[in-house]
Every structure is written in C-alpha cells, then in structure tokens.
Specification:
The protein is mainly alpha-helical. Helix content is 72%, strand content 0%. The chain has one domain.
Amino acid sequence: MRTPIDRIALLLVIIGALNWLLVGLFQYDLVASIFGVATLGTRIVYSLVGLAGLYCISLLFRDVPVVD
C-alpha cells in the first residue's frame, strides 16, 4: 500500500514530467509562467519536484504486497 508521502511524491514527479513535456514540445515552461522566470517560487517548485524524484527512486526498490 502506498503512503500519503508516496502519493504526493508521485504527483510532484508527474507535474514535473508534464512541465518538461510542454518545454520539449512547445518551448513553454508552465512553472516559469506561473511563478516567473528564476524567482524564489520557481526554484522552490523545481526543488520540490527534484526531491520528489529522488524519493521516488526508493519506490523502485520496495516490495509492495499484492492485495487480492
């Protein structure tokens, strides 16, 4: 079973991935559009996404019991 922290981390990683998709396809940075380019808000969002990504690495090595 996933913990709330697992779900939050996965959500942040998905948000980061979607932002990179927008950057790659359309050269549009949604986070920078919302918080401004190189502002404290943007740095916080990117840092949280990066930390969530590091946390999600641990999900790859966990044994999750199968529930029938």
